[in-house]
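Entry for flavin-adenine dinucleotide complex. Fields follow.
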Amino acid sequence: MEKRELVIIGAGPAGLSAAIYGRRAGLDVLLLEKGVPGGQINITEEIENWPGVEHATGPELAAMFRSHAEKFKTEFRDVDVSAVEVRDGTKVVLTNKGEIEAEAVIIATGAYFRRLGCEGEAEHIGQGVSYCAVCDGAFFEDEEIAVVGGGNTAVEEGEYLTTFASKVYIIHRRDEFRADRAAVERALSNPKIVPVWNTVVEKIEGDGMVENLVLKNIKTGEVSNLPVAGVFMFVGQSPHDEPVRGLVEAAKGGWIKTNDEMETSVEGIFAAGDVRDKGLRQVVTAASDGAIAAMSASAYINEQVHLRSVLLDPEHVTALFYSSIDREQVKLSDEVEAMARDAGKKVALVDGYKNARMVEKLGLPSLPAMVELASGKTVKMAPVADASAAGTFLK
Ligand SMILES: Cc1cc2nc3c(=O)[nH]c(=O)nc-3n(C[C@H](O)[C@H](O)[C@H](O)COP(=O)(O)OP(=O)(O)OC[C@H]3O[C@@H](n4cnc5c(N)ncnc54)[C@H](O)[C@@H]3O)c2cc1C
C-alpha cells in the first residue's frame, strides 16, 4: 500500500494552508481533493475580508492559494475520499483510486449551506442570494433585504444585517421564531426588522441581480411580491464529515470536535476549517486552523518517528519513562543514565509527559516507570520510585 507522511483531505483554504505549512516543515504532503482546489471560495463572488487582499473574486483567491501551495511542491491528487480507518493503530485513507497509509491525516473537508430549493435560487447565488452575513452583509448598505429562516442563525444574523441594510424582512414559515427568547426579543425590538410570518419564498426574480421575491402565505394561500436587493438563506449548514463519521468525536450535527491543537479524539487525526465545531466559519479562520493542524501533525509525526526508532523497532530495549516537569524525576533520569552506563547497559530515556500517548499505548500506570520491550512488545514493566528500584529493574 502507498505510504505517506501527511495526507490532507480537502483543498479548501484550510487544506491548502495546511499543505503550505506542512511542506515548509519538511513533510511529505499529499493533498486529496474531489472537486476544484479552493473549496467554497470558488463559488464566492467577491471577498473583501482576507487580510492583505482588499478585493478579489473567490476564484482569483482560490487560484492564489493553489499556486502558493504548488510553489512549495505540494502533491495534489484528484480523488474522492470515502473513509478513514484505523487498522491496528495505522491510519488508512480509502479513496475511489485506492488506499493510502498515512502517519497523520488532516480532515479539511469543509461544510455546505443547505439550499432553500426555490425557483431562481441557484441562478442568483452571488448575485444577491447569500448564505453568509459576515461575508456579504456589507454589500447591501442602505438597501432593503430579506432573511429566510426562523432559528437562532436567522434571527441573530438578521439583526447583524441591520448594521448595513435599511430594512431586513425575516421570512419564516411559522408564526413565531424558534430562536432563543433573548435573541427574539432583541430582533423584534429593532425597528429595522420586519417579520413576515407564515410565509415561504416561491421564487427569486431579477435580471442579473436579485430584484424581487415572490412570497406565498401558507395559511391564506395569498401570493405577493417583495422587492429586495438581496436575500440571505439561513436554513442550515452541515459539515462534510462523511469520511470520519463515527470514527472521531463530533458535536450535534456532525461538526468535528478538536482541541486548540486541532487534534480530534483519534490520535494522529486532525481537523481544520469549516468541518470543525467552531464559531466563525470564514477563510481566515480556516487558514489559521490549517496552519495549526499542519504544525501539530508535524510534531506528532516527528514524535512517532523518533519513538518508533528508539522504542518499537529495536529487538530489545529498556526505557525509563519520566516526567520532564518534575524535578525529582529529571534527577532520577540522570541517575539511571549514569547507572546504566556504569553497568555497560543502554537505557532509552523518554519524556512521558510530552509523550503521553506512548505512555498510554504501553499501559504504564504512572511515572516514573521502566519498561523492557522486545520488537515493540512489552516484556516487563514496573513503576520505579527511586534509583535503587531502577537498579533492581536493570539487573
Ligand atoms: C457563497 C459563499 C460566500 C462566502 N464568502 C466568504 C467571504 O466573503 N469571506 C470569508 O472569509 N468566507 C466566505 N465564505 C466562507 C468560506 O468560503 C469558508 O469558510 C471556507 O472556504 C472554509 O474553508 P475549508 O477549507 O474549511 O472548507 P471548504 O472551502 O469547504 O473546502 C473543503 C474542500 O474539501 C473537499 N472535499 C470535501 N469532501 C471531500 C472528500 N470526501 N474527498 C475529497 N475532497 C473532499 C471539497 O471539495 C472542498 O474543496 C463564503 C462561503 C460561501 C459558500
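NOTE: The mean pLDDT is 94.
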